[in-house]
Structures are given as C-alpha cells and as structure tokens.
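User: I've been trying to design a sequence by hand for this structure and keep getting stuck. Would you show me what you'd pick, starting by listing the structure so we're on the same page?

Assistant: Good idea, let's start from the same input. This is the structure you sent:
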C-alpha cells in the first residue's frame, strides 16, 4: 500500500502542508501515524479525496475534464496570434490563440484564468522510472 507524508500529499494536491494538516484534523482526509509518529496518508484515500475536490470544482459543465486554474504570467501578442502562459500551481500551461480572443478575454499578467484542456493524446509517466527502449 502506497502512503504519503503530509508534505507529499500537499504537493500532489497543490496546497500547503498546513492545509492538509487542517483537513486531517477536521476529518476531511484520513491519516495514520507511522512508527515514528509522523502522519501518513493512504494513497487510495488521497486519490478519492483528490477526485472529490476535482468534482466540486468542475461541476460537469463541460466535456473537457482537464482544468487548471492559475494566474496569467505572460502574454505575447503579434498582429494575428497570442501566446498566453499560465502558472497553475507548480505547472506551466501555454496556450496559442487568436489575438482577438486574448484581447476579448482581457488576458494580461496578473489575471486569474482557467486553462481548460481536451486532448486525445495524453502521455503518462511515472517519476523516477526510465522508459524501456522500444516501448512507449
């Protein structure tokens, strides 16, 4: 069974360790103490909690299920196109769109925006594991 330290759970959820501790103390998230007295969160419990958090935010209003709320950090415009960069927690999301769309949305550094992504090709990797040659 995979378990996570409070700090690891916080990093995976994109919140502070203090927030995870408050959730555990309030009974929203279950944690057990290890042999050293440190709180550990069961991986299955963390996955269920993360899924519930996503369902609260998403609300089923869109067929796109990949939604990242963040802050616009850069907008580069030319005559026709705009490149918009959003920092969503530790993630960098870059979008190319028409300049007209960027202007109509009022996209500038400091604006809060959602990057909503619908993709037919998603690569999943396991951190720390190298790919085997010849296998994708």
């Amino acid at each position: 069974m995979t378990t996570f330290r409070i700090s690891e759970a916080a990093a995976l959820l994109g919140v502070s360790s203090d927030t995870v501790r408050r959730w555990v103390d309030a009974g929203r998230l279950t944690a057990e103490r290890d042999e050293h007295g440190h709180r550990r969160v069961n991986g299955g419990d963390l996955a269920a909690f993360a899924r519930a958090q996503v369902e609260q935010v998403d609300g089923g209003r869109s067929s796109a299920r990949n939604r990242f709320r963040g802050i616009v950090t850069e907008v580069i415009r030319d005559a026709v196109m705009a490149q918009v960069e959003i920092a969503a927690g530790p993630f960098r999301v870059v979008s190319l769109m028409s300049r007209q769309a960027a202007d109509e949305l009022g996209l500038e550094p400091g604006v809060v925006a959602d990057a909503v992504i619908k993709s037919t090709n998603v690569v999943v990797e396991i951190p720390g594991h190298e790919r085997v040659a010849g296998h994708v």
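That's my pick for every position. To get oriented when you compare it with your attempt: The radius of gyration is 19 Å. The mean pLDDT is 85.
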